[in-house]
Amino acid sequence: DIQRAFDEKIAALEEEFAKTGNDVQRDSLRKEYSKLMSDAVEMNRDNIYGVTTFLNNAYAFLSPEEVMEQIALFPAEWQQRRELTELREATERKLRVSAGHPYIDIAAKNADGGEVSLKSVVENRRNKYVLLDFWASWCGPCLREVPNVKAIYEKYHDKGFEIFGVSLDETAGPWKAAIKKNDMNWHHVSSLKGWECPVAKQYNVTGIPRMYIIDPEGKIIAQDLRGEELANFVAGLYE
C-alpha cells in the first residue's frame, strides 16, 4: 500500500515533468521528487520499503558523504542487512577516490603490450597535472568529449598537462583504432576486460566517461568534469 501510494505520486510528477519544457519548473519537480523520496525513507526506516526506496535513489540525490550519514540513521539491525552493507562498502570505495583524497596507483598494458603505471605519469617531473580518463571506443559520450579533451591537451601539454586514459574495451582492435582515428596522443592502457577491468574497479567506475584530475602532490582535486566546465577548470590551474 505504501509503495502504491508512492508510485502514484511519482507517476504524476513524471507526467508533469514530461509535459513541461521550463527549466525552472523541471528543477522544482526534481526537488519535489527528492522530498517525496526523503519523506518515504524517513517514515519507513524500520522496514524493507524504506531500505529499497533509499537504495533506488541514494546516488541520484545524495553525495557519498550524505549516503553514509543516511545509512547511519537506519536501525542497527537494518544496517547489518546485505543491501545496506553492500551500499556502505561501495560508498566507502567511492569516497577513497573522491576529491581531496590521494590518488590510487594503477597499472595496465598499453597498446604496445608494455605495462604503464599511473604513478610513473604523476611523478614524472615534467607533468604538473594529470587527467585520469576512463573511457571506451564503444562509448558515445566518451567520444563526444574527445574534441574538448584534445583541445585542452594541445593547449596545456607543454605546460605540464598529461592524460592517462584507461579503456574499458574488451578487444584491442576497436580500442587501438579509436586512439588512432581520433589522434588521442597521450598515455593509454587497458586490461581488455570491459567492466571487469581491475583498474576500473579500484576507482569504483560504474559509468563512463569518468574523469579525475590529480595535482602535483598526488591529490585528486576534481572529478567528472566535462565540456566547458572541464576546460575552465584546467585553464584556472595554469592562470
Major sheet strand order: 5-4-3-6-7
Low-confidence segments: none
Number of strands: 7
- Average pLDDT works out at 92
Q: Quick one: overall form?
A: globular
Q: Please tally the helical runs, counting DSSP H or I stretches of 4 or more residues.
A: 11
Distance between the termini: 58 Å
Radius of gyration: 21 Å
Structural class: alpha/beta
User: What kind of sheet is the major sheet?
Assistant: 5 strands, mixed
Helix percentage: 40-55%
The SSE string, one letter per element, is HHHHHHEEHEHEHEHEEH
Strand content: 5-15%
Structure report:
The protein has helices at residues 2-19, 23-42, 48-61, 64-71, 76-79, 82-96, 118-122, 140-156, 172-181, 198-202, 227-237, and strands spanning 107-109, 115-117, 129-135, 161-167, 187-190, 210-214, 220-223. By secondary structure, it is α/β, with parallel strands linked by helices. A five-stranded mixed sheet has the order 5-4-3-6-7. The chain starts with a helix and ends with a helix. 23% of the residues are buried.
Q: Characteristics of this structure?
A:
about 240 residues, alpha/beta, five-stranded mixed beta sheet
Secondary structure layout plus pairing:
Blueprint: H1 2-19, H2 23-42, H3 48-61, H4 64-71, H5 76-79, H6 82-96, E1 107-109, E2 115-117, H7 118-122, E3 129-135, H8 140-156, E4 161-167, H9 172-181, E5 187-190, H10 198-202, E6 210-214, E7 220-223, H11 227-237
Parallel strand pairs: 3-4, 4-5
Antiparallel strand pairs: 1-2, 3-6, 6-7
Helix pairs in contact: 1-2, 2-3, 4-6, 8-11
